[in-house]
Amino acid sequence: MSGVERARQDMMGVQTVPVVKVAIAGFGGVGRATADLLLSRRRRYREHYGLDLRLVAACGSRSGLADPAGLEPDRLDTLTPGLTGPDFVTASGANILIEAGPSDYRTGGPGLAYLRTTLAAGIHGIVVSKGALVHSGGALRDMARQSGAVLRMSGAAAAALPTIDLIRHSLLGGTVLRVEGILNATTNFLLDAMIARGISFDEALREAQAGGFAEADPRNDTEGWDTAAKLLIIANFGLGLDLTMADLAVSGVQDVSPDDIAAWRREGLVPKLVGSLLRENGEMHGAVGIRTYPPDDPFALVSGKNKAIRITTDAMGETVAIGAGTEPLATAAAALKDLEHILIARYARS
Ligand SMILES: NC(=O)c1ccc[n+]([C@@H]2O[C@H](COP(=O)([O-])OP(=O)(O)OC[C@H]3O[C@@H](n4cnc5c(N)ncnc54)[C@H](OP(=O)(O)O)[C@@H]3O)[C@@H](O)[C@H]2O)c1
């Protein structure tokens, strides 16, 4: 609606509902779950924020769909070849992009091109994939600052488990002295299975793969890279640091031997793959590796596919959050939590 049209309607006493347009790039498990959840929550956005939320575009690697009037749930399966890419998203008129493509730490993945183009155009970004944030997080943060766009990434930083939000909202004002996180559900399941049932790493991995929660190539999880990526994103976007992967000492769970398991069981210790940040002499140092905990430590109780974070600050002591949800719904919900924060900050009626 044009400004003149809106003014005419206002003079006639007709209430107009501001429209906020959302696009989704990366239309796999998470992208589709996010679209479904967003469309099912349209009434909530109207009632809580006085806004008409429209999903105006969605795309995968080769095809997509768009409608400035807003896509309906029954149209999400009819993708047209060629409707994809950063220019497709900007042309859709979206105010907010939810990026849920593949994570590639080496190149930044397709998300990097989407975010560069859309942030430069002032389109707010909600990032679910980790590649662009790991590869070029600082540059993207600067682009967002320059254009005035909001950049949020709960989905990329352990999703349903609050991490960045906990630091930036709940613990605001204090100095973070230490962060410890069980950030990867696959490795937590593997260690849990090995310690609780005494099975080998290979057996536990086969079980996880059969259950569909370990990849056919599990090295991103088992060698600690997924934990490192999430830790880096928490460090850089939660604590405002500028760490790179090269700053982290990373080891995984792939070399855990039956002897290690036997020793930990004998000593009553519970092993976890942990990403940690520690403030020493005013500087934060990061690492990923196995740590062991006594059975009464909250981290020892984080079982199966759960994740956890423990944050120690100078003034608020120690805070622990433990959680997980069913995927991909939980990650979709984390992206839409970011969406609501953007609505509150930039669009909602006061
Ligand atoms: N699954 C989870 O529970 C979870 C949790 C937290 C974070 N994540 C992150 O969320 C992201 C998505 O996960 P997922 O499980 O939804 O993966 P997925 O099912 O493999 O979907 C990835 C999507 O990205 C699309 N894509 C690839 N290149 C693209 C491009 N150039 N432009 C637009 N789209 C492109 C793919 O399109 P095609 O279908 O055309 O190939 C596919 O639709 C990943 O980065 C993952 O690390 C996932």
From TrEMBL:
Its EC number is 1.1.1.3. NADP(+) binds at residues 26-31. It is an enzyme of class 1 (oxidoreductase). The keyword Oxidoreductase applies. Residues 162-339 form the Homoserine dehydrogenase catalytic domain. The active site is at 230 (proton donor). GO terms for molecular function: homoserine dehydrogenase activity; NADP binding. NADPH binds at residue 130. Residues 26-150 form the Aspartate/homoserine dehydrogenase NAD-binding domain. GO terms for biological process: methionine biosynthetic process; threonine biosynthetic process. Pathway: Amino-acid biosynthesis; L-methionine biosynthesis via de novo pathway; L-homoserine from L-aspartate: step 3/3; Amino-acid biosynthesis; L-threonine biosynthesis; L-threonine from L-aspartate: step 3/5. It comes from the Bacteria. Keywords: Amino-acid biosynthesis, Methionine biosynthesis, NADP, Oxidoreductase, Threonine biosynthesis. L-homoserine binds at residue 215. InterPro entries: Asp/hSer_DH_NAD-bd, HDH_cat, HDH_short, NAD(P)-bd_dom_sf. Belongs to the homoserine dehydrogenase family. This is Homoserine dehydrogenase. It comes from Paracoccus caeni.
